[in-house]
Design a protein that fits this description.
alpha/beta; 12 strands; 32% strand; 7-stranded parallel beta sheet; 5-stranded mixed beta sheet
């Protein structure tokens, strides 16, 4: 049986009448071809999901009736944040999508000494990244929306961090040994470097700030792949 379509309404959802317009309406009426009386699921990213029924539909507007709660979940005791070195546009988009599916809570692009240049964050890029994160949350069934944090320089992020920090480095301690030192509750942050990795000075600064240095495995991973692997390991 095909699963019901899911729509995220970050502004908030509660039982009663719900009006959807624009991309949300086009997704339900166009991509999913829903009609009057059809069901779908709706959530706001706050841990609660509702069942809804379409009452009126056109290409640009859908009116629905929101009914009972179908799922309710508490936030995980451990939050997972990834700092991902800035990579070229479509590769960063892929990293965000897959990290959301793997269970990330915060995704922060960072600039490093060896980062790709000319890929600075703009409001339009951040809005697109947030849309990608929402669509990934809709697709994978999660109930909480991740945060796409503003780009920060690696050293600035070190100073402002709030949580246990792990720096991914091929020459680091095996993850299985580092995992036991990470808290079961609170924030776990994993920093993933650019092609060529973090510089020796950056790693030294991170260690001085209390970070652990861990290997994500024996193979050389692209930045975006390492980010997804890091989330999966932290969630496992």
């Amino acid at each position: 049986m095909e699963s019901l379509p899911r729509v995220c309404v970050p502004e908030g959802v509660e039982p009663g009448t719900l009006d959807l317009a624009g991309a949300q309406a086009r997704h339900l009426s166009g991509s999913r071809r829903l009609r009057r009386g059809d069901e779908f699921l709706v959530f706001a990213g706050d841990g609660v999901e509702y069942r809804a029924w379409i009452e009126d539909v056109s290409r640009e507007r859908v009116t629905a009736n929101v009914g009972d709660v179908t799922r309710r979940e508490s936030r995980p005791a451990r939050t997972v944040e990834v700092w991902c070195a800035n990579v070229r546009g479509n590769r960063m988009e892929w990293a965000i999508e897959k990290c959301v599916e793997a269970g990330i809570d915060v995704f922060r692009p960072i600039t490093t000494e060896r980062s790709v240049r000319g890929q600075e964050l703009s409001e339009s890029r951040r809005e697109r990244w947030e849309r990608i994160a929402i669509e990934a949350a809709e697709q994978c069934g999660r109930l909480y929306l991740p945060v796409i944090a503003p780009v920060a320089a690696f050293r600035e992020a070190l100073e402002d961090r709030d949580g246990a920090l792990v720096v991914a480095n091929r020459g680091g301690t095996p993850w299985v040994d580092v995992a036991g030192e990470l808290p079961e509750q609170g924030a776990v942050i994993i920093a993933v470097g650019p092609e060529g990795g973090f510089s020796e000075d950056e790693i030294a600064s991170a260690i001085e700030a209390g970070a652990l240095v861990a290997s994500l495995g024996p193979n050389t991973l692209r930045t975006e792949t390492a980010a997804v692997v890091a989330v999966a390991l932290a969630r496992a």
